[in-house]
Amino acid sequence: MFPWLNVPDNLEPRYNVAPGQPVAVVPNDGENRLDFFIWGLIPSWAKDPKIGNRMINARAETVDQKSSFKAAFRRRRCLVLADGFYEWKREPTTKTKIPMYVKLKSSSPFGMAGLWEIWHNGNGSEVRSCTIITTEPNELLSEIHNRMPVILPEERYMMWLNPDEGDPCELKSILIPYASEKMTAYPVSRLVNNPANDTAACLEPA
Predict the structure, then answer these.
(1) 22-203: what fold?
(2) Pick from 187, 87, 186: which is nearest to 132 by CA?
(3) Which residues of 75-92 are buried (b: 16+ CB within 10 A; e: fewer)?
(4) pTM score, whole prediction
């Protein structure tokens, strides 16, 4: 995947990851290791972990201002790793939404800008969770949706994963749309509408 990354043995592929499930992340703890955190950030001060259901994304424009994200933005950043993601495109003049698979033209894995937190349960256990930062869509994604995840170029990975407290202005400067000419998208089966379907068939062109 990436030569600097420590990856667990016997890593199983996922084809349809849903909010509330574990996603592959690299936290900025200085260890450069792949781990799995729950998708849906639970702030450390939250009384109910269900708040994570509303925290699957953070807007790049306000990530340094929202109480749920601003501390993590400075201190607990991560890469959320994938080799593609789904987005739903609304059909003109209808309410039908077509699932689209979006990836790099190279089919290479990539890192999306994310934040992570540790939430302590009353029984002494802890939950590690994350959110994906989104921004305005590039030309390709603008035909599908009004937002897209921030995909960081590889030369920005180490800056994002620096364990030191970051400067918000410098960090926000790299939260921009990825180059559309390096990406592609195609419609896939509605199998992906059900998180129980987690097979390679989800990626097949419709």
Answers:
(1) hypothetical protein yedk fold (3.90.1680)
(2) 87
(3) ebbbbbbbebbbbebeee
(4) 0.96
Residue 113 and residue 101 in contact, taking contact as beta carbons nearer than 8 Å = no
Distance of CA 201 to the CA centre of its chain: 22
pLDDT tens digits for range 136-183? 999 999 999 999 999 999 999 999 999 999 999 999 999 999 999 999
Q: Is residue 123 pLDDT above 90, yes or no?
A: no
Averaged pLDDT score across all residues of the chain: 96
The tokens for 7 are: 């990856």
Query: In 10 A of CB 155, how many CB atoms?
Result: 8
Helix, strand, coil percent content, the chain, rounded in steps of 5: 20, 35, 50
Name the residue ranges covered by the structural domains of the chain: 22-203
Give the 3-state secondary structure of residue 100.
strand
Band (92; pLDDT cuts 50, 70, 90): confident
Beta partners for residue 99, in sequence order: 88
125's torsion region: left (phi>0), alpha (psi -120 to 50) or beta? beta
Evaluate whether 34 touches 8 at the Cβ level (below 8 Å): yes
